[in-house]
């Protein structure tokens, strides 16, 4: 049963509207926040719908954990890197910031190589570095307003300054002037003002984020709303909020899920923005349950998408590995050949660009590697040169055709 918003009940008349509000605000399921949306104290209902969604997420998270740990080690790293690139390109895209997969890949390469040759760091280096740490479950302090400013500085400040120096935070910690979000000429939302209100409200929001009496999934979902409502910076609030959401998810669920949030939001952008607008409406009286339900649904969809992706890729990996011996010119005892072939299959299924020759040379001599690669039919082996390095993978369409032909003979 869909949750009926208070602002819609208002059309039934003042008496029904007040009765519905009091019923919710005084309910045993009501959890009140030390935070005000306009003139109304924020609250949400920990009702059956919320519980059901949270339980579904937790169950799927266990399945995803099992699937993720079935991945071969190199495939796991490659897949995480690919998902990370997707996440950053999309979180930028939601805000109208263009970033190509190539740019994000170069930033990742810079982090990995720490190249001394480049005089200038690639764009988005700080953003990529911060997202890259989510897989390690590294702790990021998030208890004070100063912590939020530190995250913003490391994550976004350089890029914000490059986009528009006037958007640099000019207050003690945040913005000094008022800011508004527009839809054409219509003001959708005005961030809190002056800065003293921003600091007070954000500290209250952080208390809630760290309140162990409330389930983590509920806290991290609603903190996302609170941060965007406060809107502490002139620019970058959306990207900051989605990073914090991803970070909190990486701390409480399978870390790979942290790299699926912006993808899911992008696919459901209308519902995402509508939930903000609905809860900002004064007629909704501070009831954040609609946003909570939307956000939990987003996380659930991210779980479902990730589970499906991992399941399909693992099934294809097993399928190709099983049929490999029947289509490639090597004996069953050629262990090194099949080791290399297995790595090339993993690269095709899980990586962004393939597997680097430098990585293969860590495990095989140059003589052995070149000899085994020469046994692979040319149409099957794809070679890409990037950053002065060769990257290898299989053309899976060619492999599919070879398997099909083998089955017919």
Write structural notes for this entry.
It is a single chain. The protein has 409 residues and is mainly alpha-helical. The chain folds into 2 domains: 30-308, Fic-like fold; 328-408, Orthogonal Bundle (Arc Repressor Mutant, subunit A). Helix content is 60%, strand content 9%. The protein is built from 17 helices and 7 strands. The strands form 3 sheets. The protein has a 3-stranded antiparallel β-sheet. Strands 1-2 form a two-stranded antiparallel ribbon. Helix 11 (261-267) packs across helix 13 and helix 12 (269-280) packs antiparallel against helix 13 (289-327). The longest helix has 39 residues, at 289-327. It is elongated and about 80 Å long. The N and C termini lie far apart (56 Å). Mean pLDDT is 90; it is low at 114-119.
């Amino acid at each position: 049963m869909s949750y009926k918003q208070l602002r819609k009940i208002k059309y039934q008349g003042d008496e029904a509207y007040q009765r519905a509000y009091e019923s919710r605000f005084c309910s045993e399921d009501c959890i009140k926040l030390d935070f005000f949306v306009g003139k109304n104290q924020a609250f949400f209902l920990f009702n059956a719908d919320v519980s059901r969604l949270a339980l579904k997420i937790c169950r799927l998270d266990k399945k995803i954990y099992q699937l993720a740990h079935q991945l071969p080690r190199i495939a796991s790293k490659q897949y995480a890197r690919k998902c990370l690139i997707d996440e950053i390109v999309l979180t930028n895209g939601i805000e109208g910031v263009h970033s190509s997969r190539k740019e994000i890949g170069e930033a990742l390469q810079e982090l990995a190589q720490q190249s001394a040759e480049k005089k200038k760091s690639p764009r988005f280096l700080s953003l990529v570095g911060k997202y890259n740490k989510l897989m390690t479950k590294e702790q990021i302090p998030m208890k004070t307003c100063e912590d939020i400013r530190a995250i913003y500085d490391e994550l976004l400040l350089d890029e914000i300054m490059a986009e528009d120096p006037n958007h640099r935070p000019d207050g003690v910690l945040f913005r000094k002037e008022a800011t508004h979000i527009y839809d054409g000429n219509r003001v959708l939302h005005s961030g809190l003002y002056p800065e003293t209100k921003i600091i007070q409200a954000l500290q209250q929001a952080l208390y809630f984020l760290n309140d162990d009496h409330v389930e983590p999934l509920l806290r991290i979902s609603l903190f996302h709303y609170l941060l965007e409502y406060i809107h502490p910076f002139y620019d970058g609030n959306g990207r900051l909020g989605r990073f914090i959401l991803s970070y909190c998810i990486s701390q409480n669920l399978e870390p790979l899920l942290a790299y699926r949030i912006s993808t899911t939001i992008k696919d459901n952008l209308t519902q995402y923005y509508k939930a903000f607008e609905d809860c900002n409406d004064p007629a909704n009286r501070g009831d954040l349950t609609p946003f909570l339900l939307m956000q939990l649904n987003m996380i659930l969809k991210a779980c479902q998408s990730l589970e499906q992706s991992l399941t399909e890729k693992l099934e294809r990996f097993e399928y190709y590995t099983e049929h490999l011996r029947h289509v490639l010119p090597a004996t069953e005892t050629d262990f090194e050949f099949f080791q290399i072939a297995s790595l090339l299959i993993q690269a095709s299924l899980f990586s962004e660009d393939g597997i680097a020759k430098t990585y293969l040379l860590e495990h095989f001599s140059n003589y052995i590697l070149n000899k085994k690669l020469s046994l692979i039919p040319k149409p099957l082996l794809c070679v890409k040169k990037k950053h002065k390095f060769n990257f290898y993978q299989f053309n899976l369409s060619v492999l599919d055709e070879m398997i099909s032909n083998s089955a017919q003979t």
